[in-house]
Amino acid sequence: MFSSSTLLYSLSLFLSLSLISFLLFLSSSHHHNNNNNILSPADELDDLSLFHRASSSSSSRRLISLPHTPPKIAFLFLTNSDLTFLPLWERFFQGHEDRYNAYIHSDPSFTISLPSSSTFKLIPSKKTARASPSLISAERRLLARAILDDPNNLYFALVSQHCVPLHSFSYIHNHLFGSQSHHHRSFVEILADEPFLPRRYAARGVDAMMPEIRYEDFRVGSQFFVMAKRHAVMVIRERKLWRKFRLPCVDDEASCYPEEHYFPTLLSLEDREGCSGFTLTRVDWTGSVGGHPHAYGAEEVSPGLIRSLRRSNSSLDYFFARKFEPESLRGLMEIADDVIFRD
């Protein structure tokens, strides 16, 4: 019969070997990554700890707001530069302090400055790169921090530094929380018939996604979403699909946009009926260059542009739009009260 000291030694040895194996797996995968895959084993372990804390917290279990307390929207800003449109967003939020939180994941290489009066919260962030799974990590990091920060965050809207609102805050809040049910839908674009789907699936290697993700289960969509809390918790708890999506793209880096694949595939597999299948962020891909959409310049800003960007083929108007050039801020501020925030 084992003594308690022998049992304790064996357990410690098992845990140590498990941790070493995990670190070796991460390190091996990291060393085979391309230059854009900048996730380190230390960063991944730090994220795993954060995700575990958030998914097991009491905040993660509350799917409805407390009596006499309005539900909140967590706005998640992902940026690698300054928030040019901060004045427009500040005006958008004004007067609604009890119904939102705003979090910023800013690339550590850039120091973002916020006015002392700002209600935006900078979260601890890590380096990100385009065409890299580091963007998935950043988005999951934002979700986890928002879940931990406020249990009344029941919707999570991911936006970029180039996004602007197309409606008033009240319009958006009322449309999201119009139903009293806590089974709110997520607005995540989920596409199964995208023309470049085969190339995107095979970007990490022909069979790299198997057996966890079959080609017929692979989906793509917009990076930007408005996600219900139950799905946000699902995302930060997930491990199996992440092991595939964190792999570097080796065959076709031009088709490698992991953040446009991971969330649609995961939610399609886990709760397709709970998702709208469309995004609430309008983007114009006409004449795109280098994977970047059309960027609206100062000369394009007008009441007519805002009204046209709102229109969609779904039951809801678009809530947000991108991309806007920094020079367009002045024109947007001039029409904010009379056009953008007047529904």
Automatic annotation (TrEMBL):
Record's signal peptide: 1-29
Subcellular location: Membrane
Keyword Ribonucleoprotein set for record: no
Recorded topology in the membrane: Single-pass type II membrane protein
Record-linked InterPro entries: BC10-like, Glyco_trans_14
Location, primary (coarse class): membrane
Keyword Cytoplasm assigned: no
A cellular component annotation (GO) from this entry: membrane
Keyword terms of this UniProt record: Glycoprotein, Glycosyltransferase, Membrane, Signal, Transferase
One MF annotation (Gene Ontology) recorded for this entry: glycosyltransferase activity
PANTHER family cross-referenced by the UniProt entry: CORE-2/I-BRANCHING BETA-1,6-N-ACETYLGLUCOSAMINYLTRANSFERASE FAMILY PROTEIN-RELATED, CORE-2_I-BRANCHING BETA-1,6-N-ACETYLGLUCOSAMINYLTRANSFERASE FAMILY PROTEIN
Stated name of the protein: Core-2/I-branching beta-1,6-N-acetylglucosaminyltransferase family protein
Annotated source species: Eruca vesicaria subsp. sativa (Garden rocket)
Lineage: Eukaryota, Viridiplantae, Streptophyta, Embryophyta, Tracheophyta
